[in-house]
Amino acid sequence: MTLVLLCTGAGTRLLHRTGGEAVWPLENGLRWFWRGAYTRARALWRAQEAVSRIRQLEDEVEQLRLDARILEDLATENNELRSSLGLPTTTLRRPLRCEALSWGGALGWWRSLKINRGVADGVRVGDAVVCADGLVGRVRAVYSRAAEVQLITDQNSRISCTLALPAGAPTVRGVLKGAGWAAASRATAHGAAEAAPSDIGAAKSDIGVALSEIEALPFLFTAQPLRLEYIGRAAFDEGLLASRTRIVTSGLSGDIPGGIPVGWLISARLESDGLYGVGEVLPAVDFAALRTMAVLIGEGGMAQ
Amino acid sequence: MKLDLPVMIAALLVAAALQDTLPGIPCPASQATAAKVQLLPAVALYYILDRPWQMALCAALWAGLLTDALGFLPAGTTTLPLLIAAILGVAFRDATKRRPILRIFFEGTVLLAFIFASQRLRMALASIMPLSASAIAAEAIRTIPPAAIFATVAFQILSRIDLLAENVSRVKGCEAA
User: Fold this and answer.
1) Would A64 be classed as within a structural domain?
2) Does the CB of B75 have a partner CB in chain A at under 8 Å?
C-alpha cells in the first residue's frame, strides 16, 4: 500500500511535513550546541574584541530603535492621510528575527534555507524573508517551529518586480527569476563581458553595458546573477533600462510587500520576438555572508 | 526486549539531521550548487548487508521517505530505487561472513551511485532539474566517495551498537533470541 501511495504521489505534503517535523529537534539541538559551546569557547580567546563589539552593537541598536519610532509615526500619519483621501490603508508587516538552521535542504539541489520560526510564531506560507540589504526569499513550507525558505536565486523562484525609476517615469515591471544552475558559469566579469553584445552602444533595441563598466564590477560578481524577464518593449524604446538601475519588489507577488530592494540591473536586451526583453540582475543580498534575517509576518501573527 | 527498531529509528534520524544541517561540498569549477553527501542511504546500507530482510526493507523504505521529504523531491524518487537496491542486496548477499572494510566501501559506492543516478534520471524525466552531463558527473565525484566512507564508518558503529544492545549475537549469522 505504501508503494502504491508513493507511485501515485499521494500524501506528498504529509510526507514533507512529517519529515521536517521529525528532524527539527535534532537540527535545533545542533544549532544550540554550535552557539552555546563553540561560540562561547571562541569568545574566551576573543574577549576584548567581544566587549568592543558589544558596545558598538548597543549603539547601533539604540539608533535603530529611534529610527523605528520615527518610522512608526510616519506610518501612522501615512495611514491617516490615506484614509482621508479614501485610499485603503497599508497592511503593517512586522519583522520577526530569525536564524538559519540549515542551507540547501537534504540534497543541496535547491537554493533554500530553513529558519527557526514556524507556525507557532505566526509564520505562513508566502511570507517574505528579508535582511538589511534586501529580499532573501519567500516561505514555501511551514512546520510547527521551523520553515523552509525558497531563496530568490532558486531556479523556481518567480518574483514580480519593478524598476526604481525617478518620479514621473513610467512604471517598468518584470518577473524576477532565479538563475539556479544556468547562470553559474556566468558569475564572472569575463563571463558577463562575453555575454555583452558586440555592438555596445546606444542602440535602443539592444542596450548593453560598456566593457569598462563590466571590468569595474568584478568585485560584485560573487553572487549569481538573476534574470528579469517580460520587460515591456516600451522600456527599451524609451531608454529606461540604464545599467545599475535599482530593482525593487512590486507588491504584486502575493504576500511580499512592495518596495523591498532585490538587486541592480546589469544589462538588458530585447528578445528575438521583439515583444519583451530580458535583463541580468545582480542580487542585493550577499547570500554567502547572510547572518541576520527577518520574516515579515502579517498583523495576525506574533512578533518577538 | 530487542532494540532493533529504536536503534534503526535513532540512526536514521541522526543521519537525516546531519545530512540536512551539514553544508554541501561546493564545486569550484562550475560554481554550481553545493551538493550534499547523502547519509541516509549510507545508513540503510548496514541493514541491507547485515540484517534480516524485513529490517533491510524497513530501513530502505524509511531512508528513502526521509530523503524525499527533506529534499523536497517527488515521492518515490529515492524510495523506490532504494527498495529495489535492498531487494537485490538481500537476495545476493552473504550475511554469514564478516565483511572487510574495503568491500563495504565498494558496495556502498555501488549503492550510492545507483541511488544518485536514479534520482537524477527521475528529475530529468520530470524536467525538474535538467543538468549537463559534466555537472552531474562533477556532483557524483564530489558526493559519492564521502558518502561511501560514511557508510563504512556507520556500518562499524551500528554493528557495535547492535552487539551492545544484544540485537545480534557474537556468533556471525545468528540473530539474538
Assistant:
1) no
2) yes
